[in-house]
Amino acid sequence: MKSPGDTFQTPDDSYAGPLSEIADFQFDENVVDVFPDMIRRSVPGYQEIVDMTGLLCERFARPEANYYDLGCSLGTATLAMRRQLSHPGCRIIAVDNSPAMTTRCREILAADNSTAPVLLVCGDIRDVPIEKAAMVVLNFTLQFLPEKDRPDLLQRICRGLLPGGILVLSEQIVQDNARFQELYTEMHHAFRKNRGYSELEISRKRSAPEKVLIPEPLETHRRRLREAGFERSKVWYQCFNFASLIAIKAE
Ligand code: GEK
């Protein structure tokens, strides 16, 4: 099956050259070109998480409902859901606040031949109303919001989900145990090296998106989900410091 990454395979060498200084990280045109390659080489389990998002969508799909992809980037999770949705009255709402991402995402969605309607919004996920939702996906996006804004978004998601609806929340996390934090950071470094990034790129990468990405411990996510109104949440995937949770709204 074709995915957005198959269309844009520009290798990510954005941190390989002799940069005199490393600019603050932004999701701009330069990032868009290398994004599919970058995320696969930087996030362990990314493809599995996207594939399972499609299968979860198949399991939880119902007619007359909305499906949200918040922080959709190039629409990889949107497409994984879209390919499972043939129910009447289903609609995907995909949101990203990077104009460069949404412009490219629109082209990718237009080239896809599955039929569920997608409303692509260039805007802030903090401003998007969530309603009649069967499924909400936050795939490595919550980590980019200031911590003070995270509880409100999760509460709005819980309120906007239909009974029995699910949130899939994937995040880079931190360990509360220093020894494991060190080990998992080293293993992530090894993962990137194994996927072809040089030491220089790895050390530069560490200081770029991580300036704007604030990871938290799993326990913080689980507590926040409970406080937002989700009775149950479970980690269904973890590889080192990358995890994905499912939270289900009570029936
Ligand atoms: C995937 N989910 O491929 N409002 C809207 N979008 C935002 C905001 C915000 N406040 N903050 C950040 N973004 C995708 C991957 S990438 C993860 C998500 C990464 C957007 C930002 O523009 C970027 O496209 C995305 O969140 C994060 O399944 O790059 O590590």
Task: Write a concise keyword list for the protein shown above.
Rossmann fold; seven-stranded mixed sheet; disordered N terminus; 7 strands; globular; binds ligand GEK; 251 residues; single chain; alpha/beta
CATH level-1 class of the domain at 46-174 and 212-248: Alpha Beta
Number of helices: 9
Over all CA atoms, what is the radius of gyration?
18 Å
Structural class given helices, strands, pairing? alpha/beta
Q: How does the major sheet shape up?
A: 7 strands, mixed
Strand content: 15-25%
Tell me the number of strands: 7
Distance between the termini: 34 Å
Overall body shape = globular
Low-confidence stretches: 1-9, 18-22
Strand order of the largest sheet: 3-2-1-4-5-7-6
- Provide the helix percentage: 40-55%
What do you see in this structure?
This protein has 251 residues and is of the alpha/beta class. It has a domain at 46-174 and 212-248: 3-Layer(aba) Sandwich (Rossmann fold). It is 40% helix and 20% strand. It is built from 9 helices and 7 strands. Strands 3-2-1-4-5-7-6 form a 7-stranded mixed beta sheet, with helices on both faces. Helix 5 links the parallel strand 2 (91-96) and strand 3. It is globular. The model is unreliable at 1-9 and 18-22 (pLDDT under 50). Bound molecules: ligand GEK.
